[in-house]
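In this supplementary section we document a worked example of the pipeline. Step one takes a protein sequence of length 155 as its only input; no multiple sequence alignment statistics are reported here. Step two produces a three-dimensional model, which step three serialises into structure tokens for compact storage. The input and output of this example are shown verbatim.
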Amino acid sequence: MRLTTKGRYAVTAMADLALHYETGLVSLAEIAERHGISQSYLEQLFASLRRRGLVDGTRGPGGGYRLSKPREAISVADVIDAVDESVDATRCRGKRNCHDNEGCLTHDLWEDLSNQIRRFLTSVTLADVIEKPRVDVIAKWPERNPEPVRREASA
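The serialised model returned by step three reads:
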């Protein structure tokens, strides 16, 4: 079981928005620069995040994105689901056809693991992610976090 780049990048970008929640809009260029993620890839991810109602965006000069709800109200599972990512540990993606069209010997074990992972990711909010001790240190690295351009969110 592996979370792909899509899910990791989506969670990273959303954590970045959570860090800058009170400073107004954040451009994808800023997120891309801070985390070494392609801006065009972020545009694809943010289209999905916007469709799922997790972010609001404003186009044009001075535009950017912000969380559509408080960071305490968005779970990591919400973000992963929004970009159609799976955290399924079964080989058959839960279809029980992993061994000659039947469930394999360890299917229930991997399904239980998937359920535990899902419960954990549902219990962790973006607020929890950015409250970790090292987040402050990482966010303050000058080469990774240039002074963001402050923009007020338009009403």
